Structures are given as structure tokens and as C-alpha cells.
UniProtKB/TrEMBL annotation:
Residues 16-108 form the STAS domain. One of its GO terms (molecular function) is anti-sigma factor antagonist activity. CDD domains: STAS_anti-anti-sigma_factors. Belongs to the anti-sigma-factor antagonist family. This is Anti-sigma factor antagonist.
Amino acid sequence: MNFEAYLGFNGRTGTVYLTGELDATTAPVFRSLVEQAAERPLDRLVLDMTGLRALSSAGVRWLAFAQQKLPPTASIIVVGASAEVVATIRLAGFDQAITIADRGGAQS
């Protein structure tokens, strides 16, 4: 599966939709979308990972990049991530800095 990503806005919420695999090769696309989102006054950036099959350690670093680009008051919310992707985020310790909503909508 090829990596695809696009950005949408609804008020002060930006959403990056991700499919495929986020790794060192595909990260520049993600970075570009985060930079576009950071140009707007956002309260939250939602990362819709419903279609994301894999997240490498390089991909996790780009999640940290997203957090650095946003205002300190903005939150990052991961939605729809598979158990494998969530495990990668938690293994990196990044789950302490973001909100992870499970596929049913509950947050951790």
C-alpha cells in the first residue's frame, strides 16, 4: 500500500488523514502537512490513523516534530490507530505527550 496523507480543517481543528506506512521515506509528506497546519491558529491537531498500517521510529520522531510546531496550548489527538501503531507510540513514550483515542472513541 502506498503512503497517502491529506489535511483538512474544521474551525480551529486540523486533521491529517494518514494511510499506508509512516517512516523515514514518507515522513516529508507528513512534515509538509504539519507545517501547513501550524500556519493556522489551531486548538488541536487530529491525526487520523485509521488507514495507517505501520509507524516506524522515524515516524514517531515526526509526531514529536508536529508537537513542536504547534502552539503550546494546542493538543494532538491520535484517532483510529491500530494496536500495533499505538504500541509503537507507547514504546517511544510519546503517549504521555498526546491523547490517543481508541477506535471506539475512548481516550487514554
